[in-house]
Design a protein that fits this description.
single chain; about 475 residues; Amino acid/polyamine transporter I; two-stranded antiparallel sheet; about 70% helix; disordered N terminus
């Protein structure tokens, strides 16, 4: 038996072993944010893919599942709070790891901001329309961020416990709405037309729908940065990654289809053009005053995904600070709560700056759609490089475990699908501000390459190699004790 097949302990300043499998699974599910992902995106995706919107979700789920299989292969042997930075530095090259970490800054550190901003404008409009109350979105945003910071600062266990409660509530409420849709279908009745991609207006429109669906379904990798606080991460993390994808995939495929059935597949245009969120309209039609449960589900979902995203982002910032990639102060840990205190405060200021800044500039709703595509395109690059890392790692260091379908087929197919979807969505030329998402990715990537070039020309590239080495040392290490 190889030495790293024994139970593993973590050499970390964080609270090692605090998260058992159920908490890890809910970290993955709530990081995907199924309720908010469906309720806040289905109208936009339907405006692109028409009645075939569930097909866009289905394609996205298949791509994500292949990616999850690949990621699980790295999580088996390289569990670390550094996540993709560690994986790619270790399996490909430290330079590639640096650029991956650079692109990652467009992901979890911004996800909390755009989710809360969208929910804030949603809440403002709902309160105004239903009760005549004026509650500015920016005030909702600030209050929510303050509560969120307090929750995650207290410790990983309290924050994940809150996340579990909110996550279960959001899933139950939205599934109930979907079931009502099947029981009381609109014009067109119960049919399977939504699962035929040929019903989409065009290939480009379907592809753009898939891109945004990937953003809605992605998040399974939010489990990875919690490796150092997980119980038996080598075993539990891969299982949690795959099960989170399967559960949320089933949720999206059923609920998106059933919601369209409830509205009426013969009247999809009015679904896309509705001034009020279609899920709210259906909830009011089915449940009367109890429609507010859907608002509660979305609030639950946004708060749960904000906890999950903040936990993931702060652990990566902590790991990058510990390695010297970012300022060392980010590796400070609260002596009692064992949380990365400095990283949490930095993430809070990032959330406020991004959420309020983009919100006042282009609007909180457009901020969500624009950054959703930006994040997805960034993840296309990150996932593709990680897929190559899976192949390289198992061909060079784990030859005895190499399997063609795990380490060639899944990485190759998912990478090809990601590249195709990204190209097709850019070719579709969506309206502003979404149209400018590729420009942001290109500019951010070039800036990262410039930083890398400057380091190499000034003799400071050794810093990147050293940081990568420190990240390797921070990976969960085997013990001879034989205990979990």
């Amino acid at each position: 038996m190889q030495h790293d097949e024994k139970p593993l302990l973590v050499n970390t300043q964080l609270r090692a072993g605090a998260l058992r499998f159920p908490a890890l699974l809910m970290q993955g599910i709530t990081h995907i944010a199924p309720a908010v992902g469906l309720v806040l995106s289905i109208q936009y995706i339907t405006s692109l893919a028409g009645v075939a919107a569930p097909s866009a979700y289905a394609i996205a789920v298949l791509i994500i599942l292949a990616l999850g299989i690949s990621l699980a292969q790295l999580a088996r042997h390289l569990p670390s709070a550094g996540g993709y930075y560690t994986y790619i530095s270790r399996s490909v090259h430290p330079r590639a790891g640096f650029l991956t970490g650079w692109l990652y800054l467009l992901y979890d550190p911004t996800a909390t901001a755009i989710n809360i901003a969208f929910m804030a404008i949603f809440f403002e409009r709902a309160m105004s329309a239903e009760y005549g109350l004026s509650f500015p979105w920016w005030l909702f945003f600030i209050v929510t961020v303050a509560i969120l910071t307090w929750v995650v600062y207290r410790g990983i266990a309290p924050s994940t416990n809150a996340m579990v409660v909110f996550g279960l509530a959001e899933i139950a409420i939205v599934v109930a709405l979907a079931a009502w849709g099947l029981a009381k279908p609109g014009p067109g009745g119960v049919n399977l037309a939504s699962y035929s991609p040929s019903h989409a207006p065009s290939l480009g429109a379907l592809s753009l729908g898939v891109v945004f669906s990937i953003f809605s379904v992605a998040g399974f990798d939010g489990i990875v940065p919690l490796a150092e606080e997980s119980e038996n991460p080598r075993k539990n993390q891969p299982r949690a990654i795959l099960l989170a994808i399967l559960i949320t995939g089933a949720f999206y495929l059923f609920c998106s289809w059933a919601v369209l059935i409830g509205w009426g597949t013969n009247d999809v245009k009015s679904f896309s053009d509705s001034l009020e969120n279609p899920c709210f309209v259906l909830a009011r039609r089915f449940w009367g005053r109890a429609w507010v449960l859907i608002l509660v589900a979305v609030l639950n979902s946004v708060f749960a995904v904000s906890i999950a995203s903040t936990n993931a982002a702060t652990r990566v910032l902590f790991a990058l600070g510990r390695a010297g990639v970012l300022p060392r102060s980010l590796s400070r840990v609260h002596p009692k709560n064992l949380t990365p205190s400095t990283a949490i405060w930095v993430q809070t200021f990032l959330t406020l700056g991004i959420g309020l800044g983009l919100g006042f500039w282009i609007g909180p709703d457009q901020e969500f759609y624009f950054m959703g595509v930006v994040i997805t395109l960034a993840l296309v690059i990150v996932y593709s490089v990680a897929n190559y890392g899976v192949f390289r790692f198992y061909r060079t260091e784990r030859k005895s475990e190499f399997r063609w379908w795990l380490h060639i087929f899944c990485p190759l197919v998912s990478t090809a699908a990601l590249i195709w979807v990204a190209f097709a969505s850019i070719y579709a030329n969506p309206p502003p501000p979404v149209r400018y998402a590729p420009v942001v990715i290109l500019g951010w990537s070039l800036l990262g390459m410039v930083v890398l070039f400057v380091f190499s020309r000034t003799g400071r590239e050794a810093w990147i190699l050293r940081a990568s080495g420190e990240m390797r040392e921070a990976v969960v290490t085997p013990t001879s004790s034989g205990m979990d």
